[in-house]
Amino acid sequence: MSDAPLALPMPLDIEELRLIDAWWRAANYLNIGQIYLSANPLVREPLLVEHIKPRLLGHWGTSPGLNLIYAHMNRLISKYDLDTIYMAGPGHGGPALIANVWLEGSYTDFYPEVTRDEAGMLRLFRQFSTPGGVPSHVSVPTPGSIHEGGELGYVLLHAFGAVMDNPDLLVTAVVGDGESETGPLAGSWKSIDFINPVRDGAVLPILHLNGYKISGPTVWARHTDADLTKFFEGQGYAVAFVEGDDPMTVHRQFALVLEAAVLRIREIQADARSNGLSERPAWPLIVLRTPKGWTGPKVVDGVKIEGTFRAHQVPVSEVRTNPEHLQILEEWLHSYRPEELFDADGRLQPEIAALAPAGKRRMGSNPQANGGLLTKPLTLPDHTAFQVRFEERARERMGSTAILGAYLRDIYRANPDNFRLFCPDETNSNRLGAVFDASDRCLVSAIEPGDDHVSHDGRVMEVLSEHCCHGWLEGYTLTGRHGLFATYEAFAMIVDSMAMQHAKWIEHARRVSWRADIPSLNYLLTSTCWRNDHNGFSHQGPGFIDTIIHRKPIVARVYLPPDANCLLSVADHCLRSRNYLNLIVIDKQPQLQWLTMGEAQVHCARGAGVWPMYSSQPERPDIVLACAGDVPTQETIAAAWLLRRLAPELKVRVVNVVDLMRLCPADRHPHGMSDAEFVEIFTASTPVVFAFHGYPGVIHDLLHGRSAHERFHVRGYMEEGTTTTPFDMVVLNEMSRLHLCLDVMRYVPHSLAANDELVAHCKRLLVEHEAYIREYFDDLPEIRDWAWSD
Amino acid sequence: MSDAPLALPMPLDIEELRLIDAWWRAANYLNIGQIYLSANPLVREPLLVEHIKPRLLGHWGTSPGLNLIYAHMNRLISKYDLDTIYMAGPGHGGPALIANVWLEGSYTDFYPEVTRDEAGMLRLFRQFSTPGGVPSHVSVPTPGSIHEGGELGYVLLHAFGAVMDNPDLLVTAVVGDGESETGPLAGSWKSIDFINPVRDGAVLPILHLNGYKISGPTVWARHTDADLTKFFEGQGYAVAFVEGDDPMTVHRQFALVLEAAVLRIREIQADARSNGLSERPAWPLIVLRTPKGWTGPKVVDGVKIEGTFRAHQVPVSEVRTNPEHLQILEEWLHSYRPEELFDADGRLQPEIAALAPAGKRRMGSNPQANGGLLTKPLTLPDHTAFQVRFEERARERMGSTAILGAYLRDIYRANPDNFRLFCPDETNSNRLGAVFDASDRCLVSAIEPGDDHVSHDGRVMEVLSEHCCHGWLEGYTLTGRHGLFATYEAFAMIVDSMAMQHAKWIEHARRVSWRADIPSLNYLLTSTCWRNDHNGFSHQGPGFIDTIIHRKPIVARVYLPPDANCLLSVADHCLRSRNYLNLIVIDKQPQLQWLTMGEAQVHCARGAGVWPMYSSQPERPDIVLACAGDVPTQETIAAAWLLRRLAPELKVRVVNVVDLMRLCPADRHPHGMSDAEFVEIFTASTPVVFAFHGYPGVIHDLLHGRSAHERFHVRGYMEEGTTTTPFDMVVLNEMSRLHLCLDVMRYVPHSLAANDELVAHCKRLLVEHEAYIREYFDDLPEIRDWAWSD
After folding, report:
1. What is the pLDDT of residues A735-770, one digit of tens each?
2. Beta-carbon pairs below 8 A across chains A and B
3. pTM of the predicted model, to two decimals?
4. Which of A183, A399, A477, B226 sits at 20 to 30 Å (Cα–Cα) from A386?
C-alpha cells in the first residue's frame, strides 16, 4: 500500500451539480432531437408536424444512462487529468455518444460542417438515421469510439484489450443488461485475472441495468443487489450500486461512487507501481440501476412508457398524425429547458461547456480511440535468420510452427510492450512454446509451485476462450499495438462473427478520412483438419477460410504457406501490414520442407507460381498439378513423383499457391493476378488437378471468371474424418496422392490416359490401404509412413 | 413446501463404500488400459514392451473425476429409480465414459463384439484412439451420450435444453474448469432462470476443478471457495463443495453431497408440482476439487505429475523405450488391484456389477440419450389454412413472417410440450409475435406488472444469447422434441461453429446403426441484410448460408422462400423432417406476394422452376433472369417488367430458386437436380443473370460442374451497406433492377443488346438515385417507394 494520503471522493457542490445536470439535460435533449426533429431544433416555435422527421428511427431507452455516465466522467477527467475513452456496450447507443461529442466540440473538429450552433444542431439531427447518414449504433464515424454497438457481447473484451500495455489508459466501459446475457460478455468479466496494474491500464465496468431488452425483461435486472454483489465479488470485483429515478439524487450518488472508483483505480495502480503486485486487486465495478428511457414520457395512450421495454426505441410514435402525441413530444422537449442550455445562436452555454475537458482529453478526441495515431511499428528481427537449411529438398521433417515460435520469441524480446500472442491454452500444443523463453503466460492470481512459465508479468495471453483471445487482440490493435491470435483451425469458427464485425470496422475505417491505419489482425490457424487424426471429427474443420474470403476484398488476406521458410516470409509480411485480416494456415506437425529461404521469399512475394524442381516438365505440360496448403502440397508432390515413375511420358507442371487471393480475377481482389499471369502459371487450357486445404468450393468461388474455369478439378476437405491416420484422412477426403494420380488419368487427353499400370497401381494401393485400416485392430502394425519417399 | 417428510442423505455404509470404490478403481483401470495396453489386459503377466500400444494417445487427467461421479450416480439411480443421463463437459472424457458403460453392460449391448470378459476388454483397449477406432472425446458412438466433448462450452446448454418439457429427466452435467473459461459456458449458468420445475426436468451441474488445462492453470481453480460460492449463489444456485485427494474421504463426502443434491432436486420438483412455483428455486450445484490425474503416477523422472498439467494427457510416456517408465506403468496398473475387480474370465465381479442400475436406467442405455426413440411427430395444423390470397399478383405487401407466426401459434397450441421457439429477444421484432397468443415468454424469476407476455409457464424462449438459443434447441431436439431458432440473419454467424458441430453430430449419427433419427434443427433467419437499412452495416451479413452449404450434403438444406405461401410450404416440410439442419431465410418486412398457395406448393416441392407469369417469353428465352431470396426476387421481377416495357423484343424467362441445394450437380447433393432438369430450367447455353440473397460466390460454388457454368452472372451481397434505404442497399450492392437490366444488355447476344433507350434509362435512374441520396439531408423527400409498380 502506498504511503500517500488517500484521496477521498467529495460530494458535488451545488454548482457542480447544476452544471452536470445541465450537461445531462443537453445530451438527452440532443438525443430526442436526433430521433424526431427535422426543423425547429431548439423548439423556439410551437412544435408542428412539419418539424418532425418523416420516419422516426433511433433508440431512446439506453441513452439517458449513457449520457449520465459521460457527463460525470467529464468532470473527473478534468479534475484528475485522466486519459480516458468511453466504450458503449448497449446497442443503439449512437445518438447518446454523438450528442456528447458534439457538446464537447469533438464532433465539429472531425466534421466541421456540423457546427456548434443551431445550424449544426439541426444538421446533427437530420443526418441521424437518414439514408447515407449516421447509424444508430456507435460506429466507425463516431469520434471517440473503437467499439461498434451492433453485435453485442464484446465491450469488455475490447476495453480490456485496449488497456493491456497501456498503463495510463482508463476505459469507461458501459455494459448493457441485454448485452450481459450474451456468452462472450459473460465470459469476459474474468479479464481482470489477466490485468497487471504495474504495466496495464484499467477498465471501469459500469453495468447499466435498465430492466429490459427490446421487449423482454433482462435476466440481471430481475436479480437482487445481493445476488449481483455476490456474482461480481466472486469474480474479484468490488461492487458499488447507484439506483434511483430522481435525477438530483442519482447525480449526487453517482458522483461519489464514480469518483471513489476512479480514486481506487489510481490507488491500485500507484501501489502496484511502487511496491509491485502481490495479489489480484479488487477492481471497482459500478451497477447503475435507472429506468429505461429515464426522463422520457411517463405514459402514452394510458400505457406506461418510462421504465418499461416500450421506451426501448421511439417512446412516442405517430407524432405526425396524432396531435396528442405531438403535444407529448413538445412537452418532453421543453422539459429539458433548452433555453437555459443553449444561447441565442444555439451554442452550449460556456459555463456548461466548461465541464468538458480540453483538447485530447475530451473522450471524443482522445487518440487512444484512433489508435493508428499511436501505432509504433514492430521492431522485427530478420526472419531469414530462422530459416530452415537443408542438404536435399523434401527429406527431413521439421515443425514449421516451432520455427515460427523462435521468431515470435525474438519479436517478444524486441517489443516488450508492443506485441502479444493470444491463444486458447495451446501455445505449447501449437509448438510455439519458444515464446516462453521471452515471456510467461499471464495470470494475475495465485501462482503455484508446479506452474510452468506462469506469472503476473507474463505477456503470453492464454485463456480457454476464443472470444476472449479475439476480443482482447481487437482492443490491442485498435489502440495501435500488434499481435497474433493462434488457435486450432476448427475452433476459429467460434469467432466467425467477431472476424466479420472486425472486418466491417476496418473496411469502414478506411473510408473515414480521419481514421489512421491500425495494425492488422493476424490469425495463425494450426492443428489443422488434416492432422487432427487423433482428436477426431470435431477437430476437423477448415471453415474459417470461407469466413475470410467473403469479407470485403480490401481487408481480407489468406495465406497457406507450405513450409517453414514460406511461413517465416508470410509472417514477416503480415506483421508489417496495416488494416487487414491476415489468415495464415499451416499445421504444427513435423513436415517436409520444400523451398530454400531465397526461393520462399520469391515465391511468397509472387504468391503463386510454378515449382520447376518438383515438375517433371514445367514447360507445355499435359497436366497442371496445383496445390494450396501444406498437406495438399505434400500429396501433390508425391503424386508428381508417382507420375514421373509410372507415367514418365506425361509432362507434369506443379504449381503452388501461397496467397489464396491471387486466384481471384484482378477486378475482384487487390491481390488478384492478371489474366496474363494466370495463363502463365496455369496455362490457357491445360487441365488442372488442384489439391486444396479447405472446402473445394472455395476454389471454385475464387476462380469464377477465369478462362476455362471448368478445367479445374479441385480436391479438398469434404467433411470426412474420424480418429485415424494422417494418410487415411487424405484417402477419406479423396485428396491422396493416389486420388490425384487417378484424377490426372481422368482429365488428361485421352491418348495420354491409357496408362493401365499407373491406374492399377493406385487402385491396388487404395484397396490395400482400406484393408490395412480394417485390419488394424487385429494386427497392430506400425502406422505406415506417409512421407514423400517411397 | 410439501408436507412429506424430508428424505435425508445417509452416509455410505462400509460395504457401499467398498463397492463404489471398487467400481471407481475398475473404471480408472480401464482408462489406463485404453491409453496403454494392446495385450495382457489384466496384467496377469509381467508387463512387457510388446503389451504396449505403438502410439500412446488419450487423456488421463480428467478421467478419475468423471469416473467418480459416474460410480456415485449409479448408486443413487438404483436407490431412487432416477431417470438420468450423464453429460461430460471436459474434453477428452471419452475413455472414462466408455469404461463405465462397458462396466454396466451397455457397451456390449450396442457393440456385442466387445464382450464383457477379457477378450472384450482387450478389444475395448485396442480400438481406442486407433485408426478408424474410437475417438478420445465422448462422441456419437458412445452409448449414453448426446454431447460431444470436442468443442468446449456447450455442456450446460445441451443439458438444460434436454430437460425442458422433460419433467422426469435429471441430467448430471460435468463442467470442466477449462471449459468454464469459454464464453458460451459462462453465459449458460443463467439457464436456471428459464427452468420451471413444474414441467421441466433438472440439471445437476458439477464443476470439476482439477486445476489445469493442457498446460496452464485454470481461472476458477485459482479462486477461493468463498469466491466460487458467491459467484454461483449470485446466479441462484445452492453450492456444495467436495474437495480432497484421499479417495475414501472423498467418496464419503461426495456420496453425502450428491445424495443431498438429488434429494433437494426432488423436493423442489415435488413442491412445485404440488403447490405451484412461486419463485426461482435455489438449485443445487456441486464443486468437486480433486487432483488432475488423481491416483496416477505421482512423480516421473523427478517431476511431479499427479495434480499438475503434466497429467493432462499421457502421464508417463516412452514406456516402450524406458524400462523405468514401464515399471511405473506396471505398478500403476496393479495399484487398482484388478485381480479383486475382475474374475478369471475378466468379468466384473457380480457384487460390483450390481452397483449399476438395470436396463434402461443404466446411463449408457437410457433412451433419453438416443432421443430419436422418444420422438413424437409434431401435430401440424394445415399450413394452407394460413395462406395469403390475393386478387392480383404482386400488388399488396404483406409480412411473410407474421403469417408464419400465426402458423407457429397453432403449432404451439397443438403441441404444448413438444415444440418451442428459441429467439434472442426478437420474437416481436421478427414479427412472430402471434405465438404470444398461445404461450408467454419464459422467465422463472420475478415477473413485474409492466411485463408483456412473460411468465414462469411461458414456453417462448427468449434470451439475448444466440449461444443459449442454439444450445438449448440442440438439447431439446437431441432428446426428441421439435423447435425453431429464429434470429437476425447477421447474428446467426455467432453460432457458426455450433452449427458445424451439430451437423457433424447428425451426420455421424446417421452412420451409427443404433442411433434413431432426431428432429431437424430448424433456423429461421430474418431481419436480413437487405432490409437492415436502419440498423446499418453491422446488421448486414448473409454469411450463415456459407456455413450451411459446406456441411456434409446429407444434412444440409437451405431454403429461400420468396413470399409467405412459399414460406408456409417450406416450414411445413422442415418441421416434418428429421436429421437435417434446415436453414430458412426470409425478411420480416411487408413484401409483395408472388404465388398462390397451390403454385407455392408445386414450386417448393420442385425447389426451383420457371415462373411463366413473370416471364415475357418463358420458351426459348434470350436471357434467363434467375433469383433466390425475397429481395432478389423482387428486383428480378421488376427488371423483367422494365425489360418488357423498354425492350419488348427481348424474350425473358424468370426462374426462381427456393431450395438452394437443387443447383448442385446431383452427384454432389441429394437435392441436386439432374442435368436434364437443369437444362430444362436454365436452358443449355442461354446467359443467366442471377440475383442472389447472399454472397455471389456461393452460387458459383454450388454451380460448379454444371454445363456452361460461365454463362451465369451472379449479383448478390458484396459487403456494401450502411444506414440507408432498402433501394439504396440493392444499388450499393449492384443488384438493383437497374443493374440487372444493364447486366442483361451486357450478356445477351450482341444483336439484341443494342437497346440504347433501356441502357440510358437505367443509367439515368441510377444517377438520379445517387443524387437523391446525396441530397437527402437537404430536402428530406419521402423515402421513394421501391415497389414493383412503377
Report:
1. 999 999 999 999 998 777 778 888 998 998 888 888
2. 395
3. 0.97
4. A477
Domain B14-368 and domain B383-592 have a common topology: yes
Rounded (10°) angle between helices A564-576 and A597-606: 50
Q: Look-up: residue for cell 449419427?
A: B509
CATH 3.40.50.970 is right for the domain spanning A19-360:
yes
Contacts of B773 in chain A (CB under 8 A): 131-132
Query: Which of A142, A237, A701, A770 to probe by mutation at the B interface, max B CB count within 10 Å?
Result: A701
For the domain covering B607-779, report its CATH number: 3.40.50.920
| Rounded Cα–Cα distance for residues B31 and B68 (Å) | 13
Q: Is the pLDDT of residue B781 over 50?
A: no
What does the H/E/C string look like for A162-196? HHCCCCCEEEEEEEECCHHHCHHHHCCHHHHHHCC
What's the mean per-residue pLDDT of chain A?
A: 94
* DSSP bridge partners of B300: B303
Please name the amino acid found at residue A400.
S
* Per-residue confidence (pLDDT) for residue A775, from 0 to 100: 53
Separation of alpha carbons A687 and A753, rounded Å = 13
Q: What are the residue ranges in chain A where pLDDT is below 70?
A: 1-6, 772-790
Contact across the interface for B777 and A463, Cβ inside 8 Å: no
Out of A38, A187, A536, whose CB is closest to B186?
A: A187
Residues of B in contact with A127 (CB under 8 A): 777
H/E element holding B88? strand B83-88
Pick from B463, B541, B700: CB nearest A181? B463
| B537 vs A contacts (CB less than 8 Å) | 135, 139, 150, 504, 508
Q: What fold is seen in the domain B14-368?
A: Rossmann fold (3.40.50)
Where are the domains positioned within chain A?
Answer: 19-360, 383-592, 608-779
Q: Does domain B383-592 have CATH number 3.40.50.970?
A: yes
pLDDT digits (tens, 9 = 90+) for A319-369: 999 999 999 999 999 999 999 999 999 999 999 999 999 999 999 999 999
Interface ipTM = 0.96
Percent of chain B with pLDDT over 70: 97
Task: Locate the chain A residue with the closest alpha carbon to B716.
Answer: A550
Chain A residues in contact with B710 (beta carbon < 8 A): 709-710
The nearest alpha carbon in chain A to B123 belongs to: A777
Please report residues of B whose CB lies closer than 8 A to that of A558.
Answer: none
What CATH code is assigned to A608-779? 3.40.50.920
